[in-house]
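It would be a great kindness if you could assist me with a short task in structural biology. The matter concerns a single protein, recorded as an amino acid sequence and a row of backbone structure tokens. Kindly check, if you would, that the fold set down in the tokens agrees with what the sequence suggests. Thank you for your consideration; the sequence and its tokens are set out here:
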Amino acid sequence: METTRRTTTLPPRHKATVNANAVKTRCGGSNDGDNLMVSQDDDQETLQFLPSPPDCGISLNNRVVGGTQSTVGKWPWMVTYGFRDKQTRKEFVWMCGGSLVTQKHTITVAHCLLTPTHYIDVARIGAIFLNSTLDETNEQRKVNKTFVIHSEYLRNPRRRKHDIAIVTLMEPFSKQFKPICLPFQRDMKNNQFIRENAIVAGWGATSYDGFISEVLLDVKLPIVNNEKCREFYASKRVDIDSNHICAGGEAGKDS
């Protein structure tokens, strides 16, 4: 099932740029990742494109075993972020996962960027172990301190909707890392994927209110009808609408 977290206010060190039209983009073709173009109209032509297969969404390792440790290359778009303490500015705290969408842009959750004690400094890709540099294939890049947070999330973070943000890298990752494909086709937008399976990957908590995982994990979860999801979250005052996709319900598997 969809999980929720408490959010905080934006720390003064950061500048959040809001683009209310950033939810509509043109997808198709390939580019070098220097620009992430947005469109106010689905029919408006753009000069730069988000990548499409085979330039995105291709795992370098096709094995999928729910709830097990991932392997190098299995999810080549998986990113984690290094945060520094606002006061000491010393060692990184690695937390939160994201996805590469061009060689220079990543998508993550907005609430992760709004911590009052730390500021985002770098992004790392190709890592299996969260707090280790033993991964030979990983790369690290400085991030632009101006990030884009969905305007609706900033207006009302307590509703826990539109919890999404774009983080831009100062320099692109190398071509060995493949971005994920974004589903902008109309049939994908309207599909609730009932009775399909979703795969969740990340370094999240392995139990409710538990510690985060030190290794990249993945799990296969069945998509759940939104009506069932609404019933489950009714007592928790979480509003589930058509913009949500709920997954889970199997014992011992969640995200």
Observations:
- The longest strand covers residues 93-102.
- Residues 101 and 182 are 7 Å apart (CA to CA).
- Residues 1-47 have pLDDT under 50 and may be disordered.
